[in-house]
Write a structure and sequence with these properties.
By secondary structure, this protein is of the alpha+beta class. The chain has one domain: minor pseudopilin epsh fold. The strands form two sheets. Strands 1, 2, 3, 4, 6 and 7 form a six-stranded antiparallel β-sheet that branches. The chain has a four-stranded antiparallel β-sheet with strand order 5-8-9-10, covered by helices on one side. It starts with a helix and ends in an 8-residue tail after the last strand.
């Protein structure tokens, strides 16, 4: 064989091996497993940080939306700038009101107060840097104040200074593989279930 033929043969073998590795990864859900473990670490970190610093923190998810140019699944960890005990009801009020335009001055003032309390900045710890998920991995997020799981748009999981979070389920999927992270609101502990669970509503 000439040198050119040898190089071509090696290139073909490399492509075949690459496709094989990608196929095996999809079958076993290796990317989804890695994302699942990363999310568990982020949840544990935010729960501890909120309890120790007195700041309200949240895990912010950006899920692909047909009405949005962003088509990637992302999440990042955020904490309030100041130590303040924000009630769970306040976060729910803001999320409900964000989709409705304020009609009166009183409503505008009320929203501004809540938004000021809930001003969050990116969490700076290395292990919880903003993360863009592989295109093969998708998420759905349910928290206890939602009627159904969110598959698109914005979703948040809050952590409060009093040492509790929200009961939540996060389903991580890759191809036919799925894992559900079941978050306990009282303890912040996460149980990983190797299947896609329906929200308990």
């Amino acid at each position: 064989m000439t040198l050119i033929e040898l190089l071509v043969s090696m290139a073909i073998i490399a492509v075949i091996l690459g496709l094989t590795v990608v196929g095996i990864g999809a079958l076993t859900g290796t990317q989804a497993k890695a994302v699942t473990n990363e999310l568990v670490g982020a949840i544990r970190t935010l729960y501890d940080t909120s309890a120790l610093t007195g700041r309200t923190c949240r895990l912010a998810f950006s899920l692909p939306d047909d009405n949005n140019t962003a088509s990637e699944t992302r999440y990042q960890t955020e904490c309030s700038e100041k130590a303040t005990a924000i009630r769970r009801e306040s976060t729910q009020q803001l999320e409900l009101k964000q989709s409705i335009a304020p009609q009166t001055e009183t409503e505008k003032e009320e929203r501004q107060k809540i938004e000021a309390l809930l001003l969050h900045t990116n969490f700076s710890e290395q292990e919880t840097k903003p993360r863009t998920l592989p295109s093969a991995v998708t998420l759905s997020v349910w928290t206890e104040h939602q009627l159904k799981a969110k598959n698109e748009g914005q979703a948040y999981l809050y952590f409060f200074p009093q040492g509790f979070t929200e009961n939540a389920q996060i389903v991580v999927r890759q191809s036919d593989n799925a894992w559900t992270l079941v978050v306990s609101g009282l303890t912040g502990k996460v149980q990983i279930i190797p299947e896609a669970l329906e929200p308990p509503i």
